[in-house]
Structures
1.
Amino acid sequence: MRFGKLATYQLDGVAYASPLYVASVNIPGQGFHNVVYVATEHDSVYAFDADGVGPTPLWQVSFVNPPTITTVPATDTGEPNDIAPEIGIITCWRVVALYPRTQPCQGALSPCAAAAI
């Protein structure tokens, strides 16, 4: 087994949360993959192939739905230098672990959305 950088992926925001690795996840229509889940401060969750196969996410979901659901501007917290420029999902494992491993998060009432709030 080797350790090191296998791939680089584009995200829609800053990722302060630690990535979550899950082995052998069945992604519908795509088969089994070792997956790295990444959550961003722009309220998105990504599932990437942990082995660096393919240049795009296996899936991605955003919880942003303007005008009612948005990230929090860092300046609204009184601590604009801690996490900036926006505050969204701070932790990944709670967002992903509450939802079945075989499908991405769906809808505002999903366990993922509830955990992200």
Note: The CA atoms of residues 6 and 55 lie 11 Å apart.
2.
Amino acid sequence: MPKEYPYHEGLFWAEPCMSDAVLKLRLAAQRVLGKVDTKELTRSRAEYFQEYFGLTRASSMYKERLQSIWENRHKLSNRLAHIS
């Protein structure tokens, strides 16, 4: 459809820079791990990442958020009705 994201007038599409993303992820990991080389991850550190950033936690967070949205759908519906 014309005038629909990402081609809407006045908007632009930003291509990701993979090398910049890799660098930023490495820096973030180094901060969390006390500035150690990611190749030297110990099992406990790998478990830490799995616990906080793994599929189980991510899916659990998505599930909780979707349940919250579903439980509050009537409130949301009322708000949206007033907007349009």
Note: Helices lie at 18-32, 43-53, 55-71, 73-83.
3.
Amino acid sequence: MGQGDIMMIVENNLQLLRWGKEWSQELLSFYSGVDRSVITKIENNDRPNPSITIALSLAKALGVKVEDIFALKYKSQIEGGQSIVEE
């Protein structure tokens, strides 16, 4: 990535939202219909781009919008090797 290049990053808030409800992965799995192993992979960024169906199911179960779980951020490289992240 060269100086001034922009990269898109998906910010994943699934675990924070689940913790906010004091839910286990098993309980989120029950309410969303999404397998617990898939929830684990999403939370650990082993599956950073879940299907629309999975994202919608998780959002509905948590009572939030998909964008509250998965936020698109833009990371741009600036001088000195530092980066900034913007919405």
Note: Strands lie at 6-12, 70-77, 83-86.
4.
Amino acid sequence: MKPADGTIGRSRAWAGLLCAAAVLAGAGFRVERMTFTHMSSFPAALLVRWFERLTGRAGTASDADLRVPAAPVNATFDALLRLEAVWLRVGNLPIGSSLLALVRKQAA
């Protein structure tokens, strides 16, 4: 987070939400709800991205994101994502690796 982000009460993540909302609005949609998803896997994704940058592999094409992890790891993330899904029925998540938007096409 940049010092200015704290001053205006907005992090880079929230700036991303605002940018996505602006793009959707510009395309003629009314944003009814926007939230992050995959909060539980966000720290792992952040760590992987940091490691890729550190080792210089960030710009290298890879299918690593498409591989299914070991069964216990996959089961853990599956359980965590199911809990997130329950929470998302009543609230939003403050951070995550994906965005979810509920939009409606505005009348012409």
Note: The helical segments are 3-7, 12-26, 42-55, 71-88.
